[in-house]
Specification:
The chain is an alpha/beta fold and about 375 residues long. It has helices at about 60-70, 105-110, 120-135, 155, 160-165, 175-190, 240-250, 255-265, 265-270, 275-285, 285-310, 320-325, 325-335, 350-365, and strands spanning about 5-10, 15-25, 30-35, 45, 55, 80-90, 100, 140-145, 195-200, 205-210, 215-220, 315-320, 345. An eight-stranded mixed beta sheet has the order 5-4-3-2-1-6-8-7, sandwiched between helices. A five-stranded mixed beta sheet has the order 11-10-9-12-13, sandwiched between helices. The longest helix is centred in the C-terminal third of the chain and has 25 residues, at about 285-310.
Length: about 375
């Protein structure tokens, strides 16, 4: 019996490789779901529905990807890989749609690494690792920035001189794969897509998106994924003068400032060390309660910004780990918005991996749905 075609989806970070396998057909049934965590220290290979197993100490990212490819290519599976889809965080101004990845494209994408230092280098390294291990497998890049690519000039610009703006200093927005998936789910539901929708992607990374007739017209993240809402460890909106003060008056180096804003701020900085919302909610300590209060206020305030961009709000959608699972957080955000005219509230389960699989399938098979 011949094997069914399948698509591997990879979401690779500095210490983890998340993967899913989908059947390469329009309804994209999930065939396998797993991850390798603890890369560089004590790595563990986990597959949903099976026991986890430890890998060799010090396993590298490339070696972890090799373990994934070995699993998905095993002869006892009734599938055959026809493509690999990758989440690539930053596509800049030029990558506005999924693209087949080769060395020339990767070289162009490397230019955006300073704009997404926590993600881009690992995303691209994963593509090269797969190419080395399986050079005949087509690979597709799917971009978190692409969904926001058509924002108008007023929305995407910073109030900086034209010469600076022409160097690519502008608002790009992120979490686009999540927002595109949410828009697809809403469009397919009974009654279709409401005209004015604010989507709150709340997780370790957090942002908002204003959808007008299913299209992104505004979002809270900017040139990098630091802007907008406070996150697990990222600061969110910040007076740029703070950065100058940290360097000039407190003597922090550029690397120290970068680590502070990316890794030590957000909920972690506010609470005194805890970045996980579920843990903060369980604790109830004054410091942890303060972090939760801060997060809720800032989310509600930024939703107000999205409402202005839309001229109103018909539906507020929550997605992401916090958005889907923290009922009390959702309720408190909604209460702060009670002054707005009537709007509906809905939860949509995030599925960026399925969105990537869908985009990869459409690129390698233009006749697919």
């Amino acid at each position: 019996m011949s094997s069914a075609p399948a698509i591997l989806v990879l979401n690779v970070g500095s210490s983890s490789v998340k993967f899913r396998v989908f059947a390469a057909r329009d309804d994209l049934p999930l065939l396998a779901d797993g991850r390798v965590t603890g890369i560089g220290a004590s790595p563990v290979f986990r597959l949903v529905g099976q026991d986890s197993r430890s890998l060799e100490e010090g396993t590298t990212q490339t070696e972890a990807i090799a373990q994934v490819l070995e699993f998905v290519s095993a002869p006892d599976h009734d599938w055959q890989m026809v493509a690999a889809g990758h989440r690539i965080v930053h596509g800049g101004e030029e990558f506005r749609a999924p693209v087949l990845l080769d060395e020339e494209v990767l070289a162009r994408l490397e230019r955006y690494t300073p704009l997404a230092p926590l993600h881009q280098q690992h995303n691209l390294a994963a593509v090269r690792a797969v190419a080395e291990l399986n050079p005949n497998l087509p690979q597709v890049g799917c971009f978190d920035t692409a969904f926001h690519a058509d924002h108008d000039a007023v929305t995407r610009s910073y109030a900086l001189p034209a010469g600076v703006r022409k160097q690519g200093v502008r608002r790009y927005g992120f979490h686009g794969l999540s927002y595109e998936w949410t828009a697809r789910v809403l469009a397919e539901q009974t009654g279709g897509m409401p005209e004015r929708v604010v989507v709150a992607h709340l997780g370790n990374g957090a942002s908002l998106c204003a959808l007008k007739d299913g299209h992104s017209v505004d979002t809270t993240m900017g040139m990098t994924a630091l802007e907008g809402l406070p996150m697990g460890t990222r600061c969110g909106a910040l007076d740029p003068g703070v950065v100058l003060y940290l360097q000039r008056s407190l003597g922090l180096s550029l690397e120290e400032v970068e680590r502070l804003l990316h890794d030590e701020s957000g909920l972690k900085g506010l609470s005194g060390g805890v970045s996980d919302m579920a843990e903060l909610l369980r604790s109830g300590s004054p410091e942890h309660a303060f972090a939760v209060d801060y997060f809720i206020l800032r989310v509600a305030q930024k939703i107000g910004e999205m409402v202005v961009s839309l001229g109103g709000m018909d539906l507020l959608v929550f997605t992401g780990g916090i958005g889907e699972n923290a009922l009390s957080v959702r309720e408190r955000i909604v209460r702060r918005l009670a002054f707005l005219p009537d709007f509906q509230v809905q939860v949509v389960a995030a599925d960026e991996e399925r969105m990537i699989a869908s985009q990869a399938l459409a690129l390698i098979n233009p006749l697919s749905g």
